[in-house]
Amino acid sequence: MKQRIISGVLGGIIMLIPVVLGGVWYSLLVFVLAIIGLYEFLRMAGLKPYGFAGILAYVLMISTLWPYLFISQRLALDYSNMLMPVLLLLLLYSVVRKNQFHIEHVALTILGALYIGYGFHYMAAVRGMEDGLWLTLLVLLGIWSTDSGAYFIGKAFGRRKLLPAISPNKTVEGSLGGMLTALVVVLGVNALLGKLPFWQAFGIALVTGLAAQMGDLVESAMKRYFGVKDSGRLIPGHGGVLDRFDSLLFVFPILYLLGLF
Questions:
Q1: Residue spans of beta strands (DSSP E) within 105-192
Q2: To 10 degrees, what angle do helices 23-44 and 52-65 make?
Q3: pTM, 2 dp
Q4: pLDDT tens track for 95-118
């Protein structure tokens, strides 16, 4: 627990620096997190991150992420319409490999690239909006408060299991506590320091509290299916990038698509 708290606080501080600086620093943060996240996913899925299929996965992932990175304004590369060429190449590769690389591998390769690419795509897109810094900080605060609230309230009052087949330690009480904590923290901070109207801050807090836990459960389901405890070992006490940013991959896209930004 002590190691988890220390690494979590230090990691949060380190992450906030490029978030606040924005521009190329934030783009590099998002890009590196996406690259590591896809590497972890491919490893979990039993695929070679640097093999032919792995390289195609990186190309597809970058194609979804690149247009919203600050550095794309300096390097005008056109990655549009990469899904179909990558899909066809993967299918042909499964034939060449005589089903050693089979149809399930094709699906997992594309799933990983799109799941991670679009998650970080919206994280980058929001930071580039007007008031993007405040929106990004508020969402990150909501995710962190949801995680902390769910953990500590679940630890103290949790009785009923939420989804024991997916994540046996999560409880209904912890889930509700996480959502309540997100509401209190996000609304309180916005009232004191922000300028978003109440309805928008409330919507962001509510959706963040729900979507953050959805993202966490999806990651837990993936790890259970692949038979691994953590996606990686990058962050002591927390696992890998996907273990730490699984909520983010759901929250930013859902908030964006709901028009709460």
A1: 161-163, 167-171
A2: 150
A3: 0.85
A4: 888 878 889 999 999 999 999 999
